[in-house]
């Protein structure tokens, strides 16, 4: 019989790989596309850039919190 | 990957892995981790002004994740957090003024005074927290052994039930009757003077303004030992407070052109999962063990500052 900790560890590694895949897609397709837009804003409109920077990091914080919570919940339900 | 705002070229994998490590530490200890993130960004060629601002932006994202997780675990005292924000912002302004005064005497003075103060503070905190948590663990073990020998069953503390060998200090501070007195139910504190809370936050803020970073390495132990806040709640509340103060710092630094938000966003993708893991891990450790594990962190920061001082590199 497989013991619980090793099953949980395997689920954890699996979910981490899923998360890493999502991050790679996000970084190369979404964030990379934003680069030009943000540098233009940085050069010409610092206050707009400051608002955008804060909104982006808070928005990403909230969204990734939901994604990571979901993944960790999945790990728990798989290991129970 | 090219980062057009700071004109740097950095591997996104390096940023994600760095963020992941800092995220775990932040989620577990309630610290921003700027003493590690700063040198990690500087090492790959990010200019120092961007290091300071970008690190703050990354701290905002990471602290939202960890603070939300701690809130779900019941580890955030919102009332305490909001009161501490007021004291912290006032303290930060005083700390920054101290830096400005030193600047008039020359940049070398700033680096030396700030560097030496930083090293002394970090080593003192590390030594004190290490000694206290060891004493507490020893006290708990002795109590359990005595109970076992006399055949009495002793109730083992749950991970979140905290105690410290220095609980008497917090009790004495709770005895200061300087009105208005407030109740911090989420922290298990029945009555404490508002001024005491504000002073503790103010002192943390002064260190934050004077030494840079979020100063969680001071605020977290101060909440535990001086205010008597349980370690888990101190970690969660500190993170909540960091979200507000670091957002303020990010905005002001971004206006001055010191934030490359692209770097912060990439770094944060790693920090998000790290912070979740770190925050969830606190469920399995008792307060004194979390505090004992905290001991090497300030020492790492002190080591980096000593290296900077000896090698002649400029500090943040």
Determine the structural class of chain A based on helices, strands and strand pairing: mainly alpha
Radius of gyration of chain A: 18 Å
Euclidean distance between termini CA atoms of chain A? 14 Å
Which descriptor suits the 3D outline of chain B? globular
> Most extensive interface: pair and counts?
A-B, 35 and 38 residues
Mean pLDDT of chain A: 78
What does this structure look like?
The complex is a heterodimer of chains A (80) and B (316). Chain A has one domain (4-79). Chain A has helices at 4-44, 46-79. Chain A is built from two helices and no strands. In chain A, α1 (4-44) runs antiparallel to α2. Chain B has one domain (8-311). In chain B, the strands form two sheets. A two-stranded antiparallel sheet of chain B has the order 1-2. In chain B, strands 3-4 form a two-stranded antiparallel sheet. The longest helix of chain B has 43 residues, at 107-149.
Any descriptors?
heterodimer; A: 80 residues; mainly alpha; 2 helices; elongated; B: 316 residues; two-stranded antiparallel sheet; two-stranded antiparallel ribbon; 4 strands; globular
Topology:
The complex is a heterodimer of chains A (80) and B (316).
Chain A: H1 4-44, H2 46-79
Helix pairs in contact in A: 1-2
Chain B: E1 2-3, E2 8-9, H1 12-29, H2 34-43, H3 48-72, H4 78-104, H5 107-149, H6 167-174, E3 181-184, E4 189-193, H7 194-211, H8 216-225, H9 231-255, H10 261-281, H11 287-294, H12 296-311
Antiparallel strand pairs in B: 1-2, 3-4
Helix pairs in contact in B: 1-2, 1-3, 1-10, 2-3, 3-9, 3-10, 4-5, 4-7, 4-9, 5-11, 5-12, 7-8, 8-9
